[in-house]
Amino acid sequence: MRTAEIREKYLSFFEGKGHLRLPSFSLIPENDPSLLFTSAGMAPLKPYFLGAKPIFGGKEWRRITTCQECLRVGDIENVGRTSRHNTYFEMLGNFSFGDYFKKEAILWAWEFLTDHLKLDPARLWVTVYQDDDEAYAIWRDLVGVPEERIGRFGEDENYWPGGAITHGPNGPSGPCSEIFYDRGPAFGTPDETGPNTGSGDRFVEIWNLVFTQYDRQGPIPGPGILKPLPQKNIDTGMGLYRVAAILQDVEDFYRTDTFFPLIEQVALWSGKPYEGKASVSHRVIADHVRAVVAALADGVTFANTGRGYVIRRLLRRALRHGYLLGLKGPFLHRLAPVVAELLGDFYPEMRENLPMVEKQIRLEEERFLETLEGGLKRLDALLSGLKPGEVLPGQEAFRLYDTYGFPLDLTVEIAAEKGFGVDTEGFQQALEAQQERSRAAMAFEREIFKKGAQVLEELYAERGATEFLGYGALEAEGEVLALLAGDQSLGEAGPGTEVQVVLDKTPFYAEGGGQIGDFGLLEWPGGRARVETTQKTERGIFLHKARVEEGVLRVGERVRAVVDPGRRDTERHHTATHLLHAALRAVLGPHVRQAGSLVAPDRLRFDFTHPEPLTPEELERIELLVNRWVMADFPVTWRYMPLEEAKREGAMALFGEKYGEVVRVVRVEGSPLPGLESKELCGGTHVRRTGEIGAFLIQKEEAVSAGVRRIEAVAGEAAIRFARGILNRQRALAERLSVGESALEERLEKLLSELKAKEREVESLKARLVQAELRKEVALSEKGGLRYAVVEMPGLDGEALRQAADDLVERGADVALVLSEGRAVLKLSKKAKERGLEAGSLFRALTERAGGRGGGKGALAQGAGLDPATAKEALPGLLPVE
Ligand code: SER
C-alpha cells in the first residue's frame, strides 16, 4: 500500500468518525516561541487541549484529524548511521478536545489497524501506563488482547511527553498507551521478548494514544504538579513511515516509496550502490534533503541562528555525504523537484515554492562548496607538512572547523585517506574552550543587565506597567514615579543631568515592533527636560531617556509630556510598512515573510524573505499598489482581541515573536484589489486614514543575506523631499549642460557619442603618429658585423611594440630594442641568431644592468621596468665583438 493511500485511508476513517480533517500546519510553529519546529501532530493544536475553543469555519469542532509534517532535530548525528532515525516525518493523528476519551480512542485504533490496514491482530502488542487499570481493562476485555501481550510501564515509556512528570516540559500531557507491531524474530535479538525490551528492531511502535488530561506545572527538573485540565482530551500519533514500511514489506522506511526514489537517484549520480558503509550517506542525503525542502517551502531561510541554522547544518551534512560519495559539485537542488514530486500532492507549498526552494539550495550549496574548497586546500597543506606516523593537531582540526566550517569527521576521513590520524581529543578541548569563552561573555552581559533591572522590578511590583496613552494623543499629563541614572534611583535631577524618567502614564511610544521610540519634551512649572528616546522594559515600564534642560525634576512632580509632532511622520511610515508588506505578498507571493523592520519619522526599512532581486517592474507594481491604498483614503482601525481569534481571522503575525493572550490587531478598512487586505498584529502607532500617508516612494531594494531582501522607502513629506531632491538634481544637471530638462537625455546621448567619436579620433591619431615614427630614418649602429637599433616610442602597448621591433628588423637591424614607458621588446634577426645570440638571455643580461624583469626565447623577448637610458647604453656592450 502506497504511503499516500495509507494517509488518505486514515484521514477518511476518522472523518467517518465525526472528525474535521485539517491540512498539515506549517513546520514553523505559529506564535509558539518555545518550539523551533513543529515536532508532533498535537503541537499546533496545543491551545485546544488547554481549553481554547477549536473553532474552524465558524463552527466548533471537538474532533480533529490531521496528517502533520514534523521535524525533530535533536539527534541529527544519528540520522543515516541507523535506519531508524530521521528528522522530517509525517504523523497521523486523531484528536479529541473534551469529547471522546480512552475507550473510543482505543477501539478505533484497533479497528483501523486490523479492519482497514488488515494488520494481523496476533502481531499487535500494546503497553499502558503502570497505574492505568482503565486502559488495561479496555484492551483486555473490550478488544480482547491476551494479557501476555499487554505490558505496563512507567513514565519514561508510557507518559507523554516521555518522563514529563519528573523532567518536564510543562504543558498538556498524560498517560499513554502504545501499539507495537511484531515483525518476527528475524528482526530481533534474543533478549527482545516484547515491546521495550532488548536492543533489536523486532517490536516497532506504530501508534501512541495519549490520554491528555493534565497540565504539567512546576520546576524543571521536578517532580512537577499534574494539574487536571478542564477537560479530558485525546492526542494520538501514528508514524506514517513505520506503518508504510510494514505494509510495503520492506526492511525499513528508507525503502518505502517516499524515500527510495531519492536514494536511487543518489546511487545513479554517484555510481555508488546503496549498500554497505556507503549507504549511510545515501540515507543522510535522502532524509536531509526532504527536511530542507519542507522547511524552505514553509518559509525558513538559511541563517546563522535558529531555524535557518538548523537547515544550514542539515544541508551541509548532506552535501558532505555527497562529497564522500564522490558528488563534488552542487547536487542537492536537483533533488528538490524529486521531493516535491514525492510529497507535493499532500504539501502543495512544496510545488508552489519549488523554484524559490531550488534556487536557495543551489546558492547555499555553492557557498558551502567554496568554503569546503578553502578548507580542503588548507588541510592538504597541513597534511603534506606531517611526517609519517604524526597526527594532525587538534588545534588545527578545530581551526578548520571554526574558520572553514569544516566538520571534524570530514577532516578525519580525509586525513585517514592519506594515512594520518587526527587528535580528536585536542579538537574537543579546543571546542570546549571556545564554548567556555562564549558562555563567560554571556554571563557577564546578564550580570550587567540584572543590576539596573532590580529598581524597576520593585517599581513594577508597586505600581505595575506604564499606561500608554499615545494611540490617540500626542500630549498628556503624568506623574514622575522614578528617576534612574545608571543603577541609581534619584530623588531629583538638576539641569544638565541625564536621567531615565518613569511616569505613571505617557503618550510617548516606547521603541518596539520596528518603530523607533518617541522623542519630545517633559514640562513642569519652572522646568523642562528633553526626551531623546523612549524604551520599555520587558514588564512594560516605559523609560524616557531625557536630559534636564531647565529647573529641577523631582519624583512626584506632575509633568506635561509632549511628543514631538514628528511622530505623525513615524505613523505614516508605520502604516505604509503594513501596506508594503501586504503589497509584497500580493505581487511576489505568500512566501514573503517579514524578517525585520525599522519605522522612523524620515524613512522605513523592511526586510523580507525572497530569494532574488526584485525586477524594476515588480517594484513599480508594489509602489503603485501602496499608493492606490493611500489615495483611496481608507480608515485605519485597531482593536484588541484574543490571540486565537486574531489568528483565525488571518491577521498577519510575526513568527518567533512573543504575543500575549490578548493582542492588538491593526487593520486597513478597504483595499485596492479584491481579496487583498492589510491586517497585522501590531502594537505600533498608525495614521487614522491611509490618505494621511500622502505618498509612498521606494528608494532602493537590495540583499541583506541569502534569501532576505531589504526595501527602503519614504512616505509623507519625506517622499516629497526625496522626489524634490531628484528633480533638483535633474535641474542642476540640465543647467550645467545648458539644455532644457526635457532635452537632458538627448544631450547625454549626444555627449556620449561625441565622446566615443573623440576617442576614436585620438586612437587613429596615435596610430598615425606611431606609423610616422616608424617611417623615420633609424640610425643603425654596428658592432662586430651586427647592426643594432634602440628606439624609444611612448604610447605603444604590447602588440604595437612587437610590431615596431619587427619593423626595425625588416629594415635591416639585427638586434632591435624598442622601449615604451617602461615596457621593452627585443627582437633578433636570423643572422644575429646564427651568430649565436639568444633573445631570452640577452634580455636578462639587459635587465641585470638596466633593472626590470622579463624574458623570452629564440628571436623574441620582452619585459618591463627597464630604465631606458641605461638599457640604451648597455646594449652594445652585450653584443659579440666579432
Ligand atoms: N503527541 C504524541 C506523540 O508525539 C502523540 O501524538 O507521540
UniProtKB/TrEMBL annotation:
One Gene Ontology MF term: zinc ion binding
Cofactor(s) in the UniProt record: Zn(2+)
Reactions accelerated catalytically: tRNA(Ala) + L-alanine + ATP = L-alanyl-tRNA(Ala) + AMP + diphosphate
GO CC terms in record: cytosol
Enzyme Commission numbers on file: 6.1.1.7
Domain annotation Alanyl-transfer RNA synthetases family profile: ranges: 1-725
Keywords: Aminoacyl-tRNA synthetase, ATP-binding, Coiled coil, Cytoplasm, Ligase, Metal-binding, Nucleotide-binding, Protein biosynthesis, RNA-binding, tRNA-binding, Zinc
Gene Ontology biological process terms from the UniProt entry: alanyl-tRNA aminoacylation
Domain remark in the UniProt entry: Consists of three domains; the N-terminal catalytic domain, the editing domain and the C-terminal C-Ala domain. The editing domain removes incorrectly charged amino acids, while the C-Ala domain, along with tRNA(Ala), serves as a bridge to cooperatively bring together the editing and aminoacylation centers thus stimulating deacylation of misacylated tRNAs.
Family: Belongs to the class-II aminoacyl-tRNA synthetase family.
Name of the protein this chain belongs to: Alanine--tRNA ligase
